[in-house]
């Protein structure tokens, strides 16, 4: 997977690594302003506004609440498509996946399949992604198709499936994060695709999107992890610390009741007592805390700044990456790790998405 693009200006035009081939996916994560009128993304033949457009996707508020799809060739627009709902809301974050298939483009919004758009011109001609209008893009990522594997710095996506960027991880060649036998790493915030899109409790056979994350849950947040934590299992968490935060924590714990054992306590402390900008790791057994671990190479969190956390369970330890960088390891103190069957998050933080893979 190509390296993600963070906080691009609007408008922006970015080349599509490897072009558009079946299986290629483009992930967009952004925010729609309070008084937005319209915004669009184009898959087009060049970086300029006048380039031919293979796929024009144009959400319009303006009292109409419609998403217009079209193409443009030699300066002329084709027939508009407007049917379908309207999944966008002003003053709200969103995530889009564009999936390229042999006969069409598929678009999912916030984890749900939204529309298909049949190819009207050769997808090979679409070499740029252009975004413009009333939108703030947080990040853009490309995966699949003929995109080369990601350079050192994160986790590599599973072979033959798509995985969400928004974090964009791929394994470094020397040490660090070796992909599990089942397929490897995938980016955070959200999506790791099996061959079908089967969100929890919902089945969309053959739609081709990854399972649906949990979006914007209330904090404190607790989620059961079916089967517990086992080698190769990953958890993707995206969020934003509150302004003027004291602390927040992420726990992998053995149940949901008060006083339960905690296999991994990941406690981000901005200003808590005598603790400033430190991430404390620990475990709890039999109601008692064990020895704290405080060393880490840097402090990757900031008040009001988005973050992506990936927790990977390996045979001997948990590994944690923050914003596409390996951060810490925490050796298992509770065995087997499958006893940790609950994810719990609390404190001064807003969570935008959670995904268990």
Automatic annotation (TrEMBL):
<keyword id="KW-0677">Repeat</keyword>
<dbReference type="Pfam" id="PF00337">
    <property type="entry name" value="Gal-bind_lectin"/>
</dbReference>
<dbReference type="GO" id="GO:0030246">
    <property type="term" value="F:carbohydrate binding"/>
</dbReference>
<feature type="domain" description="Galectin">
    <location>
        <begin position="221"/>
        <end position="357"/>
    </location>
</feature>
<protein>
    <recommendedName>
        <fullName>Galectin</fullName>
    </recommendedName>
</protein>
<keyword id="KW-0430">Lectin</keyword>
<dbReference type="InterPro" id="IPR013320">
    <property type="entry name" value="ConA-like_dom_sf"/>
</dbReference>
<feature type="domain" description="Galectin">
    <location>
        <begin position="12"/>
        <end position="143"/>
    </location>
</feature>
<dbReference type="InterPro" id="IPR044156">
    <property type="entry name" value="Galectin-like"/>
</dbReference>
<dbReference type="InterPro" id="IPR001079">
    <property type="entry name" value="Galectin_CRD"/>
</dbReference>
